[in-house]
Structure formats: structure tokens, C-alpha cells
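User: C-alpha cells for Probable butyrate kinase, please.
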Amino acid sequence: MSNYKIFTINPGSTSTKIALFEGEREIFSRNVSHDAKTLAAFPAISGQFSYRRDMIVKLLEENGISLSGVDAVVGRGGGLLSMEGGTYEIDDLVLKHSQTGANGVQHPAMLGPRLAREFADLYHAKAYVVNPPDVDELQDLARMTGIKGVYRVIHLHALNLKEVAIRHSALLGKTYEDCRFIVCHIGGGISVSAHRAGRMIDGFDIVGGEGPMAPTRCGSIAVADLLRHCEGKTLQEVKLLCTEKGGFVSHTGSSDALELSQKAQNGDPYAKLLWDTMIYQIAKAIGSMAAVLHGKIDGILLGGGMVHNKNLVNQITEACGWIAAITPYPGEFEMEAMAAGAVRVLDRTEAVKQYQGVCRFQGFDFDKERNLFH
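Assistant: Done. Predicted C-alpha cells:
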């Protein structure tokens, strides 16, 4: 096992996580929560850069942590255009697109590349992003929709999904490229995906509202029903149902899954129906991914914070255990996944990739011939 020194930075909506690794061993980590009023004082997410950078510097100094000799710094990659999975060098184009939010999504993860590059330049290290949220490896059959010129893209928890798949492949004595998995991330957001030959060939656009209901997301709904519900509402209000004000928030005003599950366990009929419906929809989504993989599956893997809940795991196992063995990986491995991606590149077991700065899917050849895709 290599002993590369890797520093990882993960800016979230209300916190910043940092961790220092020697090889696969975490030697220091902190998760700092930020006051909502402090963050709200910045007119744009990009304006938070100095605030978060200075907070990281202060944390390292207070804990006597030196980054001297660090081999690589990895930042959570946000704001980028769609790409295939892998580890990418943070070059000037990555910096430009992450800073402006080229994908149209404003999220603190877009600060990750800039923060990583800042520390990497200071300590003469490599700077990377690993499996950013915009990883899109859909097979052609997963692209088409029933509306001409409208094609599917996906936004999933790619970093954790792929890390769980890589870890389980190793347990089976195989490589990720040799396996076929259904991998779920069940937390504040819910991702269900099909993996084959080292690629995430199908899944759901959870930012766009696809897939199972989640604590803050509405999940898949008939378009006609949504249109009727949203008459008189602005486009922004409708988008918020997909990403922030749907799911548990729409029903109860809270996104707290633990609170809802406890109410369900204590006999609250509304909470129980809502909790069980979410799990039912996850099971349905897993079934659809089983069809994508033609039933040839090496395992169903469950990651994310809600997987600590035994009732959830038991319900999914009861509904889907006949498809393939189900293995829970409770919690998240984002920091470990970022470090592992850097190590693979430094070890030269995986080639570093160059960000192209264009959407990975540019339409089919027949679209270009007929000028249908723009």
C-alpha cells in the first residue's frame, strides 16, 4: 500500500469537510458547520472562497497539522459539464467552469476545485477532482425520451456510488470493470444506478426530479399531474419542488428522515405511509435497474446515511433480495473516495483524465445530420 499524503476538501451547503490521508489511512479530519447567516451574507457562492479557505487554514494551524510534503490535494468537483467517471487534473478550464457554474447548478461543491488548486499550488502538489456530481456514462438506450430532441442526462451521487462499487468489487476478488452492480445512495438525496464494466450505464436525474422521492426531492411524478399542481406558480417554484421543497419537506415541512422514521415506528399513520412509500419507490427503482442489467447482477449495494436504519434495509431486502445479495454500506465514503482516486493516479494504476469542457453527450449522429440537437 502506498503512503502518499493526500489532502481532501469537500465544501457542502452548510459545512466544509477536510481530511488528511497517508495512503488509505485517515490521519486527520474535521467537519465544520457554518452559520447560515454568515453564508447568506455572500451574494454568490463564489464569494465564499476566502471565508472557507481561511477557515481551513485556521483549523490546520489550531490542530498542528502541516501540509508540507503533501502529494495531492483533491477538491469536490462542482459546477462542471458532464463527463465520464475518473480522476481529473484541476487545470485552468476546470477552475473557470467550476467558478462560474458552467452546468447551471449553484452549489458550494463548485468551490472544491478552486480550494484544492490554491493549497496544491502553495505546497507544490498535484490538484485533482474525482468522480464529480456530473459524471454521465449513460448507454445510448438510456438517452432517448418520448419528446423529439429531448434526451436524458443524469445527476447522481457519483463519488460515493462508484467508491462503494469499487470497494465491493475488491471484497469479491474482482475489479470494478469485471462486475455488474445496482448501487444506491440513500441519504439527503437518493440515487439508484446500474453499473456494468466500470461504467454507470443508467440512473436517474435526481436534480431534475427523477427517481424515488427523497427528503427534499419530489421524485418522479406524471407530467400532467405536476402541471396541474403548479398552475400559477413560477418556474423557480417548480424547480424547488424537484430539489429543495419536495419529498418529506412538502409533506411535513421537515427533511429530517430520522424524525420521520421514529414517528412511523411510533404508529403515526401519515409518517408511516410516507416512510414506506419512499422505500417502496427505492425498491421499484432497483427493479428497473435489474432489468437494465438483464438480471445478471453481482450485488445490490446500499450506501448513504439512511442505510443505518435497519427497517429501511430490511424492507429493501424483503422486496429485492431475490434479485441479488444485498450489502449495506451505511454512511458516506466521499473523503476516502477522493483520496483513493488520487492514489490510483499517483500509483499509475489509473490514468489521469483531462476535462474537455463540453457536455459529454452531444447528440446522436442523426441529430447532427438533421440539425435537431443544439
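User: Anything notable?

Assistant: The radius of gyration is 21 Å.
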